[in-house]
Design goal:
Distance between the termini: 27 Å
Oligomer: single chain
Structural class: alpha/beta
CATH topology of the largest domain: Alkaline Phosphatase, subunit A
Largest sheet: 8 strands, mixed
Helix content: 25-40%
CATH class of the largest domain: Alpha Beta
Number of helices: 18
Radius of gyration: 22 Å
Number of domains: 2
CATH architecture of the largest domain: 3-Layer(aba) Sandwich
Strand content: 5-15%
Number of strands: 14
Strand order of the largest sheet: 5-4-6-1-7-8-2-9
CATH superfamily of the largest domain: Alkaline Phosphatase, subunit A
Length: about 525
């Protein structure tokens, strides 16, 4: 891991002078050069989409993502890409700050610390026009993100109407062209986040919801291997895939608007999902299906079409430095990530042999801290909250799937074991994700893997110490129930201290209580 931080330090040293020039108003390149050379940047995100739900990333559902697949054929698929934290707002805060959640202040559904620089601030200084479609409230406080155009969920047909995404994207592209300024657009679909298309949840919440270009039936889909294949689960997974298809419709609509604008040739486009599906053992966890994301990048004339990167592990913390390097702009000090732009051009980068992912708290502000280190094959997970009594609760337990699992558990011991593991977990987990991507076999007590477990635990400890992770002492004393209990008492106290007093306060963007 020292290689990653050595490489990052070189990157920060390189951009440090540029940051000072930006702050003083003396740009490292002339304004005319910027206008001629700077690319537009388009980031399209899915909300709660598993990586392997996408056709070109191994999805088996027929014709599930034709627009995303076409985008991949025009550029590069990054096969070992991860987001940093598998929950909506903290994930997006990481993308836009280049810092881990415990370093940008947004561990849960709250604003980043106002002292932390954002991508949008840097792009604004560099002359970019910033726009966002959907998930606006998930980047807070608002003043830190310098939006020149912002259209949120209510203006986008519950964030699920491709025609409205097309309209507003086209308007924004036209505005950027008329002002002769490069643009950054973050287009966030609210699909396939719950409520899924065709579900009772959707019927109860939304009126006149857009219908996907294809609706799937239960016999047309495969149930993910980490869930039991029982009727109610299969029904809900079909509803999820219908929402995946509607997300793909939205991706196609935004890309159509870009093509029609005449600006596609000078646009770096990236697509990813903010984390895995909102079902047990995916979202708000640290498993492979929690954080692995279908990351695609296209850049006409620069990224070779149809390429695949299986060499580098990249993470959400790397998005901001990558976007800034592509834009020819200096990055601020303090970012944890570093640019993976060389990977786009087929060059090998050192320090990309592992990623660190984490989880802090649910949208209900309940703390279930988890930490993970993953490499190309293995994953080590630390769950300091697991004490045999605390019960894990999150939104993945709404809907049909978890209730069906609980009912089936009464007569099926294998499903009962899965339900118990999901609710109570164990302090340490270790998986061979190459052989067992669904994390069905915890190898933490297998003596054959003792050296690898010790190595990865040590790597996680070193990373925690370097980044100031408050869970460092807990992992250092992971065999001590008293140490874990003390850590969780501190975590619960922090959660109670930061809990908003009212719904109105929740979205004000006020800075949270200092640590």
């Amino acid at each position: 891991m020292s290689t990653i931080y050595t490489t990052r330090r070189r990157f920060l040293k390189t951009v440090g002078l540029g940051a000072a020039l930006l702050a003083s108003g003396r740009l490292p390149i002339s304004a005319s050069d910027r206008k001629r050379k700077q690319p537009n940047i388009l980031l399209i995100t899915a909300d709660d989409m598993n990586c392997d739900s996408v056709g070109c990333f191994g999805g088996s559902t027929p014709e599930i993502t034709p627009n995303i697949d076409k985008l991949a054929s025009e550029g590069m698929r990054l096969m070992y890409a991860h987001i940093t934290i598998a929950v909506c707002q903290p994930c997006r805060s990481v993308l836009m700050t280049g810092r881990y959640p415990h370093r940008n202040g947004a561990e849960g559904f709250g604003p980043i610390d106002t002292s932390v620089p954002t991508l949008q601030e840097q792009l604004h200084l560099g002359g970019y026009l910033n726009g966002i479609l959907g998930k606006v409230a998930h980047l807070a406080p608002k003043e830190k993100f310098k939006w020149d155009m912002a259209r949120d969920v209510g203006e986008l047909g519950h964030g699920r109407n491709p025609k409205l995404y097309y309209k507003f994207a086209k308007d924004f592209f036209r505005q950027a062209a008329s002002k002769r300024r490069p643009f950054f657009l973050m287009a966030n679909s609210h699909d396939p986040h719950r409520p899924f298309h065709g579900s009772a949840q959707e019927a109860n919440r939304f009126k006149n919801a857009s219908v996907p270009s294809r609706v799937y039936k239960a016999d047309e889909i495969d149930v993910p291997g980490f869930l039991p294949d029982i009727p109610a689960v299969r029904k809900e997974i079909a509803q999820y895939y219908s929402s995946v298809r509607r997300c793909d419709d939205t991706v196609g609509a935004v890309l159509q608007a870009l093509r029609e604008s005449g600006q596609a040739q000078n646009t770096l486009t990236m697509f990813l999902s903010d984390h895995g599906m909102p079902l047990p053992f995916a979202k708000t966890n640290c498993y492979l299906h929690s954080t692995r994301t279908p990351w695609i990048a296209t850049w006409p004339g620069k990224i070779k079409p149809g390429t695949v990167d299986k060499r580098h592990l990249i993470s959400g913390i790397d998005f901001m430095p990558t976007a800034l390097e592509a834009a020819g702009l200096a990055g601020p000090e303090g970012m944890d990530g570093f640019s993976f732009l060389p990977a786009f051009f087929g060059r090998q980068q050192a320090g990309r042999d592992k990623v660190f992912t984490q989880f802090h708290q649910t949208s209900a502000r309940k703390r279930f801290p988890m930490r993970t280190v993953q490499n190309h094959r293995y994953g080590y997970i630390f769950n300091p909250w697991s004490d045999g009594q605390r019960i894990f609760k999150n939104e993945s337990q709404s809907g049909l799937t978890f209730k069906a699992m609980q009912a089936a558990a009464r007569n099926d011991s294998a499903i009962a074991a899965r339900v118990k593991l999901f609710q109570y977990r164990v302090v340490e987990e270790f998986y061979d994700f190459e052989k067992d991507p669904d994390a069905l076999h915890n190898l933490i007590d297998d003596p054959k893997y003792r050296k690898e477990i010790e190595k990865m635990r040590s790597e996680l400890l070193q990373w925690m110490q370097r980044t100031g992770d408050p869970a460092f002492e807990a992992l250092s004393n992971h065999n001590s129930p008293q140490a874990l209990k003390k850590f969780m008492a501190e975590q619960d106290a922090r959660a109670a201290q930061r809990k908003p007093k009212s719904k109105a306060r929740k979205n004000t963007g006020q800075k949270r209580t200092s640590r």
